[in-house]
Write a structure and sequence with these properties.
By secondary structure, the protein is an alpha/beta fold. It has 2 domains: about 180 residues, NAD(P)-binding Rossmann-like Domain (Rossmann fold); about 130 residues, no CATH class. It has 15 helices and 12 strands. Strands 5-2-1-6-7-8-11-12 form an 8-stranded mixed beta sheet. α8 crosses α11. The radius of gyration is 19 Å and the shape is globular.
Length: about 325
């Protein structure tokens, strides 16, 4: 399969490498003038969670960058993984350049999915979510991927051959695909989880200090509980996991979550690399909480814990 990764960001590079290693032709679209600055080589210092507990990969990887894209291209798949606040511009750019390619929406989302992709042919849109992260220091990428990725359907998204092709693409590349029946709500709940952890991380003075403190992790659980009703207010469902989160004592959930985040595993490794490379700045981390709080106020939903932390994430 011929694959175009939109941008040379962390997720695009990690999964572009994995797909090329699986035998696919992978290229990266970057803005005009960026190729010279980025260079044609990425120095990989990553861990591959598809192998054991995360096999270390340390090697230079030559990549192909292109600065032009029109509807006459022959890509089979375009992978769009950008920050949620950049989605509208990215989709608008692709709308006249998609050709016959399938577009994989592959990242965080807080808006209504059908609104975000309204400029794209619905039968060419597939939804997924990565299990990886990290950051760049110059041309060196530090981070990793876990074995799982997530896929599912939103209103109007493709449920047939294109979806199956993308799912099989990742499976044959060694990933496990966890399919979510209500991907729209799943994306929103995941966004809120990130908002809670990132906000509490800012309050604690960094993700490392967050995971070192059971109280701080428990506070992030309480933040998440406070945010969940917003999913229902916008017409989504919180799912069984969030229902359990609301019933189990917050201290117990905080204890278990801290053990996962602070343990010697791929998730904690990726979080460490995100912070070490400065990939998630105060501005970027705070954007999640600002978006959530703005909507809560718009619909009249009180969030006293998040409101009290506003000085931490306000611009």
């Amino acid at each position: 399969m011929k694959v175009l990764m939109f941008g040379r960001g962390t997720i695009a590079t990690l999964y572009g490498w994995a797909l090329e290693k699986a035998g696919h032709q992978v290229e990266f679209y970057v803005r005009p003038g960026r190729s010279a600055a980025l260079g044609s080589m990425v120095e990989l210092q990553i861990r591959d969670g598809r192998v054991g507990r995360g096999a270390p990969v340390s090697q230079p990887w030559p990549i192909t960058l292109r600065e032009d894209l029109d509807s006459g291209h022959d890509y089979d798949l375009i992978v769009l993984s950008v920050n949620h606040d950049q989605l509208n511009n990215a989709v608008s750019f692709l709308s006249s350049r998609i050709g016959d390619a399938t577009v994989l929406m592959f990242g965080n989302l807080w808006a209504e999915p059908s609104t975000v992709t309204s400029q794209l042919p619905a039968n060419q849109v597939v939804w997924g979510f990565p299990g990886g992260g990290g950051g760049f220091t110059g041309s060196t990428l530090r981070g990793g991927v876990v074995q799982n990725i997530f896929m599912g359907f939103t209103e109007g998204s493709n449920r047939s051959e294109r979806y199956q092709d993308v799912r099989d693409l990742f499976k044959k590349a060694g990933f496990k695909v966890s399919e979510q029946p209500d991907f729209r709500s799943w994306l929103w709940v995941h966004f809120l989880l990130d908002a809670a952890l990132l906000t509490q991380g800012l309050a604690a003075g960094g993700q490392a200090k967050l995971v070192a403190s059971r109280q701080a992790v428990t506070e992030s659980v309480l933040l998440m509980r406070e945010m969940i009703p917003l999913v229902k207010a916008r017409g989504g469902t919180s799912g069984r996991g969030m229902a359990l989160l609301s019933r189990i004592p917050a201290g117990l959930v905080g204890f278990l979550l801290q053990r996962m985040l602070a343990g010697k595993n791929m998730y904690s490794f990726i979080m460490d690399e995100v912070e070490r490379t400065g990939h998630m700045s105060r501005e970027g981390a705070g954007l999640y909480a600002r978006d959530v709080l703005a909507e809560a106020r718009q619909v009249g939903l009180l969030m006293p814990r998040l409101s009290a932390l506003e000085p931490v994430f306000a611009v």
